[in-house]
Design a protein that fits this description.
mainly alpha
Length: 71
């Protein structure tokens, strides 16, 4: 499938700022996850990581919906 964002969107200053923000949040969340000993907290952080990865990929071709829900 086509990316949600077109070429103009991907080159916009707004998307570039959002992408940078998402990447920074992703890095910080991964560090927090690596340092977490609590399984419930780790599960919550992994969910955040998955959503941040998904959002930062809006400039890439969209995967099939079914792939998002595979275990």
């Amino acid at each position: 499938m086509e990316p949600l964002l077109n070429e103009g969107d991907r080159q916009s200053a707004v998307w570039i700022k959002i992408k940078k923000y998402l990447e920074e949040r992703l890095n910080l969340t991964r560090i927090r996850n690596d340092n977490s000993c609590d399984s419930a907290k780790t599960e919550k952080l992994r969910g955040r990581i998955a959503e941040l990865v998904h959002l930062s990929a809006l400039d890439k071709p969209m995967p099939k919906i079914e792939e998002d829900f595979k275990d």
